[in-house]
Write a structure and sequence with these properties.
globular, single chain, receptor, transmembrane helix, 11 helices, two-stranded antiparallel sheet, membrane, mainly alpha
């Protein structure tokens, strides 16, 4: 793999685009750190997710770099760690929303659910990330990262990383477990009131991520373009999360500042959903803070309804791009 290869240029361009977009979103969030939209998104977890996105896009460079002990070590480290940052935070978010809704269904709320504070959420996320770090460290000890010579044919030799299928499956296996759990909680909270739109966005993010990885697995293990396939899958996963989770919030902050006030985050007993009204089971006097809820906006609802269509479009685009890159390998 050379830096001047067409497939490498495509992967680097996508990674740079995603990195730049993430920098822009991070700057907007930091600039408006004390506004209701940012607070409602559980800003501590949002920043952890963005750090994971940075690592996702940054993983493209060591993956495309000439194989060496350093580049192979970093390429074994970054993808699994980046995904654990993103999906551990998303799992913590969805679990929190699910517990809030479970508590709101009780007729008498005797006490507030435990571990609901921002500090507790960060600690839970860091514990999940620690599990991933332990798996990566164990695999690096069992199979030290280095380069080796591969012979695809008697007349051809290549220098590649000595990464085995187990070295890929073990770190990404825990990430897939986090993705699966996020998807389960997203399905459980799919019929939440509009005040809980954050759960819908997380749900569509996970559905689209599953589509990407359904395309990744057969292509990665069934073709010779493993490096490009990994680069594109990692970058697309981060871009999907950025677009679906953060772009609607950026739109509210920059173009609809009148929506960025506390009145749009208060909860009522009757809340407007996609069609008509429904009783949410969460009262004004609920013990849950407004940071547990998302923006109530017709544009937000419209964006939610586009999730399945976006998933299908991205799936077809991903397959076409994988095929295009394989043709030039």
């Amino acid at each position: 793999m050379q830096w001047t290869d067409t497939s490498a240029i495509v992967a680097l361009a996508i990674a740079m685009l995603g990195f730049t977009a993430t920098c822009f979103c991070m700057a907007v969030f930091v600039r408006h750190n004390e506004t209701p939209v940012v607070k409602a998104s559980t800003r501590e977890l949002s920043y952890i997710i963005m750090v994971g996105m940075y690592l996702c896009h940054g993983a493209t460079i060591p993956l495309l770099a000439p194989p060496s002990s350093v580049s192979c070590f970093i390429s074994r480290l970054l993808p699994g760690l980046a995904f654990s940052l993103m999906y551990a935070a998303l799992l913590t978010k969805t679990n929190r929303i699910a517990r809030i809704l479970a508590g709101s269904k009780k007729k008498i709320i005797t006490r507030k659910p435990r571990f609901m504070s921002a500090f507790a959420q960060v600690v839970i996320t860091l514990l999940l990330i620690g599990v991933e770090c332990g798996i990566i460290a164990a695999m690096l000890i069992l199979e030290p990262a280095d380069s080796m010579l591969a012979y695809p044919s008697p007349a051809r030799v290549r220098r590649v990383c000595n990464t085995t299928p187990l070295g890929i499956i073990a770190p990404l296996g825990f990430d897939l477990f986090l993705i699966a759990m996020c998807t389960v909680y997203a399905v459980k909270t799919r019929n939440v009131p509009e005040n809980f739109n954050e759960a819908k966005f997380i749900g569509f993010t996970m559905y689209t991520t599953l589509v990407i990885w359904l395309a990744f697995v057969p292509i990665y293990f069934g073709s010779n373009s493993k490096v490009i396939t990994m680069c594109l899958s990692v970058s697309f996963s981060a871009i999907v999360a950025l677009v679906i989770l953060f772009f609607p919030k950026i739109y509210i902050i920059l173009f609809r500042p009148e929506k960025n006030n506390r009145s749009h985050f208060t909860t009522t007993k009757d809340v407007r959903c996609h069609i008509g009204y429904m009783n949410s089971g969460v009262s004004r006097h609920s013990s849950h803070s407004t940071s547990d809820f998302s923006v109530e906006s017709p544009r937000y609802v419209a964006c939610c309804n586009c999730g399945p269509i976006l998933s299908l479009i991205l799936f077809l685009f991903t397959l076409d791009l994988f095929y295009y890159c394989n043709c030039f390998h």
